Amino acid sequence: MKLVVGIGLRGGTSYEELTALVRDALHDVTADVHVVATRTGREQEPALKRLAQDLNAELRTFETSELATQSPPTPSEKVQHHIGTPSVAEAAVLAAGARLIRTKQQSPNATVAIGHLPTPEHDEPAREHTTPAPAYDESTGERITPAPGYDASARDAVHRVIAERRDVRRGFLDLPVDDLLLTRVLEAAHRAPSVGLSQPWDFLVIRDSDLRRKVHDLATTQRDTFAASLPDDRRAAFDGLKIEAILDAPVNLAVTCDPGRGGRHVLGRHADPRTTWFSAAIAIQNLWLAARAEGLGVGWVSFFTPEEVAGVLGLPAHIELVGYLCVGHVAEFATAPELVRTGWAKRRPLTWAVHHETWSNRDVSIVNEALEAGEPGATRQAGQAGEPAQAGESGEGATSGQTVHVIIGGDASSLRHPEDLVVDLGPTKPPANFGVLWRHARTAPEATELGIELARDLALQGIGHLHVRIADRIDHAEAFAQGIATGASASGLRHSSA
Question: In terms of Cα–Cα distance, which of 290, 330, 337, 280 is closest to 68?
Answer without folding.
Answer: 337
